[in-house]
Amino acid sequence: MSEKIKVGILGATGMVGQRFVTLLENHPWFELVTLAASAHSAGKTYEEAVGGRWKMETPMPEFVKNMVVKNVADVEDVVKDVDFVFSAVNMPKDEIRAIEEEYAKTETPVVSNNSAHRWTPDVPMVVPEINPQHYEVIEHQRKRLGTKHGFIAVKPNCSIQAYTPALAAWQEFEPHEVVVSTYQAISGAGKTFKDWPEMLGNIIPFISGEEAKSEKEPLKVFGHVDEEKGEIVPFDGPLRITSQCIRVPVLNGHTATVFINFGKNPTKDE
């Protein structure tokens, strides 16, 4: 790639935004040129805006320290220098849906880490190894938004990304009952042990909202694009997922234990 793609981060000062910053440092494809956050952070350098809230284990990259943070609500100003944006804004769901669509309508593609648009029928929720064909629905989304280039695409819940590729690989054996337990790090809640010292040596056996995501989101990933309706139809075959989601005293990384019953039992070699 001779010229890097210029990208921005919406919600750059939060924990997910900080992770985007570290991942984009010296990236072979992308050049981070714009940081945006709330009005409280706007006009400050990134180092000033984050202050003592830097949550990554590695130091803040030097190249972002003096970048001036823009107001995420000033959409036209944020998008003027970027090819697309990564979204990690922390707002109520209806506000996230609205502002991500506002960005898309400026002909700026939005790649979102948020859950707000995961169940919008014409927004692809993609694990690239499984369902890249879902990107076809973007053409229908563009018609709804009135855009030629802008669109929104999202990632699924982080915990399901561990085991859905295995389920996809074994589809020929008709997995029909899945019992999964996820053991989720505190970073998934936007926390560190400094923020959440009571998690040291502790577990929380229930994470509000996570079980529904674990049970339903794979069905959209395994669904299909209905060209007539212009939307993704979730898989409605004989697949039932039951989950329990547990918060554990680990900083980064989720673990999943998965038990599967197959309609056609595979051999050990298979």
Set down the secondary structure blueprint.
Blueprint: E1 5-10, H1 15-24, E2 30-37, H2 46-50, H3 62-65, E3 70-71, H4 75-79, E4 84-87, H5 93-104, E5 110-112, H6 138-145, E6 152-154, H7 164-169, E7 175-184, H8 210-221, E8 224-226, E9 231-233, E10 240-247, E11 255-262
Parallel strand pairs: 1-2, 1-4, 2-3, 4-5, 5-6, 7-10
Antiparallel strand pairs: 7-11, 8-9
Summarize the structure.
This protein is an alpha/beta fold. It has helices spanning 15-24, 46-50, 62-65, 75-79, 93-104, 138-145, 164-169, 210-221, and strands at 5-10, 30-37, 70-71, 84-87, 110-112, 152-154, 175-184, 224-226, 231-233, 240-247, 255-262. The chain has a six-stranded parallel beta sheet, sandwiched between helices.
Which CATH first-tier class of the largest domain would you pick?
Alpha Beta
Record field, number of beta strands: 11
CATH homologous superfamily placement of the largest domain: NAD(P)-binding Rossmann-like Domain
Distance between the termini: 39 Å
Structure description:
By secondary structure, the chain is of the alpha/beta class. It folds into two domains: 5-117, NAD(P)-binding Rossmann-like Domain (Rossmann fold, 3-Layer(aba) Sandwich); 158-262, Dihydrodipicolinate Reductase, domain 2, CATH 3.30.360.10. It is 23% helix and 21% strand. It is built from eight helices and eleven strands. It has helices at 15-24, 46-50, 62-65, 75-79, 93-104, 138-145, 164-169, 210-221, and strands at 5-10, 30-37, 70-71, 84-87, 110-112, 152-154, 175-184, 224-226, 231-233, 240-247, 255-262. The chain has a six-stranded parallel beta sheet with strand order 3-2-1-4-5-6, sandwiched between helices. The longest helix has 12 residues, at 93-104. It is globular. The protein starts with a strand and ends in an 8-residue tail after the last strand. The model has no long low-confidence stretch (mean pLDDT 95).
